[in-house]
Write a structure and sequence with these properties.
It is a single chain. The chain has about 475 residues and is α/β, with parallel strands linked by helices. Helices cover about 50% and strands about 10% of the residues. The protein has 17 helices and eight strands. The chain has helices at about 1-15, 20-35, 55-65, 80-100, 125-130, 190-210, 250-255, 260-280, 290-295, 295-310, 315-320, 335-350, 360-370, 380-385, 405-425, 430-440, 445-465, and strands at about 45, 50, 105-115, 140-150, 160, 180-185, 220-225, 240-245. The strands form two sheets. Strands 6-5-4-3-7-8 form a six-stranded mixed β-sheet. Strands 1-2 form a two-stranded antiparallel sheet. A hairpin with a 2-residue loop joins strand 1 and strand 2. Helix 8 crosses helix 10 (about 295-310) and helix 15 runs antiparallel to helix 16 (about 430-440).
C-alpha cells in the first residue's frame, strides 16, 4: 500500500496537482482497502477497526519515503491569483532589462500523453476495460514541449517512455528521431533527464535558430516549479537565463497551459483517427481493432512530430497573452479554433463508421482530452506495480536489417515498380506522371546515397586486382 501511495504522490507532483496531509491519508485508506485480502488481518496501524491512517502513521510514512522534498500543504493548494497579477510586470521588466526579443523568450512544460487511448463509446475502449492484464489505453509517454513567444520556433520535444529500446524502434538510431528520446521505468521527468534535454537539445537548437535570425545568442527560458526543474538551471549556461514562475500560478500564466498543449493533443487525436480511417480505406478487410493494434510507438513518434508541425504560429504566440500582455491582443480566435478542431475530429471518427466511432460527438472528444490529466485510481496503481517490463529490442538480432548497397537498391527498385504499376492502371496519364515525379523527388537523397555506395564498392573491387608487395624477407 505504501509503495502504491508513494507512486500516487509522485504522479501528482509530476502533474503539479495539489497535495495535502488529509488527501494523502484518505488515499492511503482507499489503497489499503483495495489491497487487503478479504478476511485478511492487514498490517500497519491495525486495530479492531482496521487501518486508520493516523497522524502518527502519516508522520512515520513521510520519514520512510523521504518525502521531505515534496511540498505538502495543510489544505489543497489553490491558484495564487495575487501573485499571477503581479508577476507579468516583473517579467516585462526582466525582458526589457535584458533586451530580449520575442524570438529569444521560451517556455517549456511537461504533459502526459496516453498515446493509444480511445473514446469511451468505442468498442476498443470497452473491450480493453473488460480484458485482463496491462491496458494499452494506460500506456503513457511524457512529453516536454517548448516554443518561443514569436511562435516561429518549436524545440525538439523530449519524449520519455518506460522502455529505451522497444521493438518498434529496432535498428533505429535514437539520435536521429524527431524527438529527444529518453526512458525510465515510470516515464517521469527527473532533474537529470531535464538537464540532459536542456544541455544537449535546447541550448544547441536555440543557438542555431537565433543564428539564422541574425540575433544574439541569449535567451530566457520560463519554467514552473515542477519537481524535475532544478534551481541549478539558473547557472547552467551563461547565455540562457532561466526564470521560474511564482508557485501556484502555472494554470494562470504559463503559455503552454493556455492552449498550446491542448491544441497539440487535439491534433494528435485527429491524426490517430485519420490513420485508422486511411488504413481501413486502403484495406477494406481490415477492422478497427486490427488498425489500432498495429499502431505502435514508432508511429506515435511520427504522429507527435507531425502534430507539433500543425501548431500555428498565431496559436503559439497568442498563448503568451497572460504572461506577456503587450505581446498579443486578447481575442477569442483560439477558442473558436479549438471548437472547430473538436468538431472535425468527431467528423473523422464518424467516417470510420463502425465499432462505436459512428456515435462519437464533440463532447466525447473533449472527454477524451480531459482524461489525459485524470488522477491515478487504486487499480491504475496496482497495474503500475505489477506491470512487466516492455519487450525490448534484442542486442543480437537474427534478422538485422541494415542500410547497405543491397537493401538500398532493393528499396529503390520497389519505388520504381510502384510508379510503373500506377502508370499501367491509371487512366489519367497526367496524374500518374505527377505521382512518378513526386516519388523521384522523395527518393532523391536515397539515389545520391546509392551512387556513393556504388562508388565505394567499385573502388574496393579495383584494389583486388593489385597484388600485395612481397615482404622484405621474401626477396632473398
Amino acid at each position: 500500500m505504501e509503495v502504491a501511495l508513494s507512486l500516487w504522490i509522485e504522479d501528482r507532483n509530476q502533474k503539479r496537482m495539489p497535495l495535502s496531509g488529509p488527501m494523502i491519508r484518505e488515499k492511503a485508506m482507499r489503497l489499503y482497502a483495495h489491497f487487503k485480502e478479504p478476511g485478511g488481518s492487514g498490517g500497519g496501524e491495525c486495530t479492531d477497526g482496521g487501518f486508520q491512517a493516523s497522524e502518527g502513521w502519516f508522520n512515520k510514512f513521510k520519514v520512510r519515503q523521504s518525502l521531505h522534498s515534496i511540498k505538502i500543504v495543510g489544505e489543497a493548494a489553490s491558484a495564487d491569483t495575487a501573485a499571477a497579477k503581479k508577476y507579468p510586470e516583473e517579467f516585462a521588466n526582466l525582458v526589457a532589462d535584458g533586451g530580449y526579443k520575442p524570438e529569444q523568450v521560451f517556455n517549456a512544460d511537461e504533459t502526459a500523453l496516453f498515446w493509444k487511448r480511445m473514446p469511451n463509446k468505442t468498442f476498443i475502449s470497452k473491450s480493453e476495460k473488460s480484458a485482463p492484464g496491462f491496458k494499452a489505453a494506460k500506456d503513457r509517454v511524457t512529453m516536454l514541449l517548448c516554443s518561443n513567444a514569436s511562435g516561429d520556433c518549436v524545440i525538439k520535444p523530449l519524449m520519455l517512455y518506460r522502455s529505451l529500446n522497444p521493438r518498434a524502434l529496432k535498428n533505429q538510431n535514437k539520435d536521429n528521431l524527431p524527438v529527444f528520446w529518453r526512458a525510465n521505468k515510470k516515464a517521469w521527468v527527473t532533474s537529470a533527464i531535464f538537464c540532459d534535454w536542456f544541455r544537449n537539445c535546447f541550448v544547441s537548437e536555440v543557438e542555431t535558430y537565433l543564428k539564422k535570425k541574425n540575433l544574439d545568442f541569449k535567451a530566457v527560458l520560463v519554467l514552473d516549479n515542477a519537481p524535475g526543474h532544478p534551481r541549478e538551471l539558473e547557472t547552467m549556461h551563461p547565455n540562457i537565463k532561466v526564470s521560474f514562475l511564482p508557485p501556484n500560478t502555472t494554470a494562470l500564466l504559463q503559455p503552454m497551459d493556455q492552449g498550446i498543449i491542448q491544441a497539440f493533443k487535439l491534433y494528435y487525436i485527429r491524426r490517430t483517427f485519420k490513420i485508422i480511417l486511411d488504413n481501413m480505406e486502403c484495406d477494406p478487410d481490415m477492422n478497427v481493432m486490427e488498425c489500432w493494434k498495429k499502431f505502435n510507438i514508432a508511429e506515435c513518434i511520427v504522429n507527435v512530430k507531425e502534430s507539433l508541425g500543425e501548431l500555428k504560429p498565431s496559436t503559439l504566440k497568442s498563448c503568451w497573452k497572460k504572461l506577456w500582455p503587450v505581446l498579443t491582443a486578447e481575442n477569442d480566435e483560439e477558442s473558436v479554433q479549438i471548437q472547430t478542431l473538436t468538431a472535425n475530429i468527431a467528423e473523422i471518427a464518424n467516417g470510420i463508421g463502425r465499432d462505436g466511432f459512428d456515435q462519437i460527438e464533440s463532447s466525447d472528444i473533449q472527454e477524451l482530452l480531459e482524461s489525459q490529466n485524470e488522477d491515478l485510481t487504486e487499480t491504475d496503481l496496482e497495474e503500475m506495480l505489477n506491470s512487466q517490463p516492455i519487450e525490448e529490442e534484442a542486442s543480437t538480432s537474427t534478422e538485422n536489417v541494415t542500410f547497405n548497397l543491397k537493401n538500398l537498391s532493393e528499396g529503390l527498385k520497389m519505388a520504381n515498380e510502384l510508379c510503373d504499376f500506377f502508370m499501367k492502371i491509371d487512366p489519367s496519364m497526367e496524374r500518374s506522371l505527377i505521382f512518378k515525379r513526386k516519388i523521384a523527388n522523395a527518393t532523391a537523397e536515397y539515389q545520391s546515397e546509392l551512387k556513393e555506395l556504388l562508388k565505394t564498392a567499385k573502388q574496393e573491387r579495383i584494389t583486388k586486382f593489385f597484388k600485395p608487395l612481397p615482404k622484405p624477407e621474401d626477396n632473398n
